[in-house]
Design a protein that fits this description.
Largest sheet: 3 strands, antiparallel
Strand content: 15-25%
Radius of gyration: 35 Å
Helix content: 40-55%
Structural class: alpha+beta
Number of helices: 2
Mean pLDDT: 86
Oligomer: single chain
Number of strands: 6
Distance between the termini: 111 Å
């Protein structure tokens, strides 16, 4: 292996030094050598473009896969939230008999396990707050309130965030301006 094999390719402006002169051989040999050098340079440029295209393809494929996984995970988490809602509704039902109390305990344990698994996946409940925030809440009902509009009066269905974005907005009852009563004349 000679010392020129390990050197990086030279830029196009430096390649003119590689071109043969008329004194180094016949004109036909010089022409053949010039064509070979130009052909080599073209193949090298094509190879570099192919390498860049391949790297871009790999990056794009990884991004597409990540996007698809995120979409599918979001869908699964949304479905699991419906299960969590059902467990919460089951626990809201009064348990009177001993059998119902035992069943409620099992439902509570199941709910706790599901909630712990969802929290491991970075799913967080939207905290209750007094002011209505359209980025976090969905107003599904309004009630006149003398204290003024824009207050959350009741959370009807809990909202959740996943990885910092709202997965499901909290469904809330909000206050609206109290209806004015006509003054008697």
């Amino acid at each position: 292996m000679n010392s020129t094999d390990s050197q990086p390719p030279t830029p196009a402006s430096d390649r003119t030094a590689e071109l043969p002169t008329a004194a180094s051989g016949t004109a036909a040999e010089a022409l053949d050598l010039t064509r070979a050098i130009l052909e080599r340079d073209e193949y090298l440029a094509q190879w570099k473009r192919a390498q860049a295209d391949y790297q871009n393809l790999k990056r794009r494929a990884a991004a597409d896969l990540e996007s698809q996984l995120r979409f599918e995970k979001k869908r699964l988490l949304s479905d699991l939230l419906l299960v969590l809602d059902s467990l919460q509704m089951a626990l809201a039902t009064p348990a009177v008999s001993e059998e119902a109390k035992t069943l409620a305990l099992g439902v509570r344990l199941t709910q706790d396990q599901l909630q712990a698994a969802l929290e491991k996946e970075d799913l967080r409940a939207i905290p209750e707050q007094e002011r209505f925030d359209p980025a976090l809440h969905e107003a599904v009902a309004q009630t006149p309130d003398p204290a003024g509009p824009g207050r959350v009066l009741q959370t009807l269905r809990r909202g959740y965030t996943w990885k910092g974005t709202v997965l499901r907005a909290a469904q809330v009852r909000v206050s609206c301006a109290a209806a004015e009563t006509p003054k008697p004349d």
